Sequence to fold (216 residues):
Amino acid sequence: MFFHPASNGLIPLREKQIHPLPADVIFMGCLRVKRMATTKRKSISKKARFEVFKRDSFTCQYCGAHPPSVILHIDHIHPVAQGGGNDEDNLVTSCESCNQGKSDRSLSDIPQSLNDKAAQILEKEEQIKGYQRVLAAKRLRLEDECAEVVELYESFCEGYTLNDKAKVTVRMFIEKLGMHDVLGALERAYTNTRIRSGQEFKYFCGICWNKIREAE
Ligand SMILES: [Zn+2]
Fold:
């Protein structure tokens, strides 16, 4: 609850309302919001809905989905419950899932013009490139860590190394468990004297799989 600094804490301010308005204006604002919330939503004519769809190229303006994979809806940018109306500027084409999840989104997510859409496409490409850079760094790290596991393996099995198939498995274990657990499992497998010679790697895999199952 926010209070107007000049009101002795008597007049509640709506969240985000930061302008120092006269107390009576704020009070009227509260009354208006209360009445709007109980106002029944006016339906939008099919013609008006299709004008909005056409303006938005029959594409969900939040996620880019379009028919036939989705059915389009009309979304109120400023919600009806908060006093938003049916004027075209307040309406936007939305798929059902975006329409339902809209409460998480802010107005800045909504493309307002072709320039904004172009900027959004550019940002999307930049985000993809950024994500690819993250993946490349992760691959390099896994490669380094896998080499460390291979080194430990070679210290246990002199004259032997792991083949490519085994390395793929090791990388998967590292990804799921982290280096600490994987090195620990390898050490347990190759220092356990009860494991028959030649069965160590299988035993190591068994320890890792058990740990993965435990974590799930
Ligand atoms: Zn959508």
